[in-house]
Amino acid sequence: MSVYRPLVCLFRHGTAARAWRTLTTWSPVGAAFNARVHRRLDIFHQNVGLFGVPELSCVEGFEVVQDRALQETQQLVEEACRCPPGVQTVEIFDKLSDSLCRVADMADFIKVAHPDPSYREAAERTCINIGTMVERLNTNVDLCKSLKDLLDNEEIFSKLDPETRRVAELFLFDFEISGIHLDKKKRKEAVNLNVKLLDLSNQFLMSCHMPNRIEKRALPEHIHQHFTKDGNYIQIGGLNADAPDDLVREVAYKVFLYPNENVMHILEELLSCRDKLARLVGYESYAHRALKGTMAKSPGRLYSSEIVSLLTEKDFEMMREMKTKLNPRNPELMPWDHPYFSGVIRAERFNIEPSLYSPYFSLGACMEGLNGLFTQLYGASLLAEQPSVGEVWSEDVRKLAVVHETEGLLGYIYCDFFYRPDKPHQDCHFTIRGGRQLEDGQYQLPIVVLMLNLPHPTRSAPTLLSPGMMENLFHEMGHAMHSMLGRTRYQHVTVILFLSLGTRCVTDFAEVPSILMEYFATDYRVISQFARHYQTGQPLPQSMVARLCESKKVCGAADTQLQVFYAIMDQVYHGKPQNRSTTDIMIDMQKKYYGLPYVTNTAWQLRFSHLVGYGAKYYSYLMSRAVASMVWKQCFYKDPLNRETGERYRREMLAHGGGKEPMLMVEGMLQKRPSIEDFVNALVSDLDPDFETFIMDSEG
């Protein structure tokens, strides 16, 4: 049994904390995240290993946990092949999935997040070895036969509960898309293609975030300060989209997106292998293979909205006018201008200056707000715990236990929130361990990691978040709570993203809980519960919240159109092969679906890391946003803190993971089955400045 104590009470035995003098009394979780933690080496306690896995107290432990999982896999395969058809068949398959995924999921995280290169390399090897085993299992004829015997036995199969039947069907689907129906030679070819895809995916992901270099002398000296210096070179590792200087944004865009022939080849080969695999196992294209079982069903059902395109032209015209006003010598609107000038317009029109808001959004205040929201909606609380020695990979990581008022401990969230040069630059969520029902009646508790890139606290202030950072925090916590509140019987349908080792939660549904949290993050009734000035304790004025909410709609059409462009380009890449380069396709799609000109000698697609985890499924962000919009307006808009609605939302949409068809979950919550037209209308209504929102008196 765990003992939950506020983190701020645990700074002893060499641990020190600094809390800022304020007029505010924080809750324990708020105080924990507004405290500056300094952990020292603790020589009196044993190293428990990463995430409490003893073997991972040293880098050699990866091989130990990997080999153990592979041995257990072999035993379970033999057991599954001997087992007579019944519920036990599905249970053994799920044990098999859990044994491999517990190692693969953890390694998948460590290979990108651990500051020690030796850990990252060991985790990378583990990912490849486990992935290779999974692909072999997915073409194991005897293993598949044991499952098919169950599904073909109508008398036994019909008596199984709905979740067990769905999980059995999903396991069979994994076999089918891997080519189990092929002859031996073609099955081997499918395995080889899958193994090659694992390697190509890893190579492409690594390259997406690598900086580009340019000689110092090639750039005006006055902009050197905006980039990293490396001897006689300047390193550019991003788009510097928020830089006020037009030249800085232009240089960053042209240098960071400059084509790399090797990466171009990796992407072309990745797309080619996916197409070969899809056709080999009987699909018209990789997109058809990827969308089977999703809410979209097939590529033909995805299309753009002319209404969004018309609104986008108005947004771009506003941006052109603003750029002309600020830089009359160079008024042409370019791709590097979109994110910057949309922000400038919002700030000018509604006085949304981040520095005015951030004192009210200390990290502790925001965590306090999330804790209050989850308590009111679900009866679940966030409790800070002190990690054991060796349990975390960085001194800045905080550990949260999620505890329900009647159900007890639901799981753990590790919060890696602060910027480090070695971290991935994107905010993201990782599932380390999925939940499932154990044989002894206990529940295997889920473990997740949230990664953000927030500024470190200073001597005079805790970490202060801009409105955008606060919204990202709510978004990622939505993913985490989806895992915590899910109670699936089987690990195979627990909530997870970006993994090819199992079906889990359908991609175009998985973003719904996180995007829904963004609506809570901009509602005054929610914000008013936690947004307090970190020094004075004064609440954020209602008028400032009103301006922030209304500003979201400004240039929203252009932002949505950009997502449409990304989604359609992703579909074309994974559709019928075309005799032209990925750059030529991108230029064509940009012209048709975006509206800003292509910049010569750039290859934006080589930085599009979502092509790996969301290949042929990038549309999921738009579809999930549409569902979240409908759920918010129909269910939470009138009373976002209503416990009865929160419980119904958990019951209908969060509890099932991937154990229930996603459209049935949406239908259960909305009491209707939405059409593609409903999805489009939901997106457009969010862009309509006349849509009736929670209107507040701007003088209030």
TrEMBL record:
InterPro entries: M3A_MIP, MetalloPept_cat_dom_sf, Neurolysin/TOP_dom2, Pept_M3A_M3B, Pept_M3A_M3B_dom
Pfam family, one: Peptidase_M3
GO cellular component, one term: mitochondrial matrix
EC supergroup of this enzyme: hydrolase
Gene3D superfamilies the UniProt entry points to: 1.10.1370.40, Collagenase (Catalytic Domain), Neurolysin, domain 3
EC number: 3.4.24.59
Family, per entry: Belongs to the peptidase M3 family.
PANTHER family per UniProt: MITOCHONDRIAL INTERMEDIATE PEPTIDASE, PROTEASE M3 THIMET OLIGOPEPTIDASE-RELATED
Reported function: Cleaves proteins, imported into the mitochondrion, to their mature size.
Subunit relationships: Monomer.
Protein name in the entry: Mitochondrial intermediate peptidase
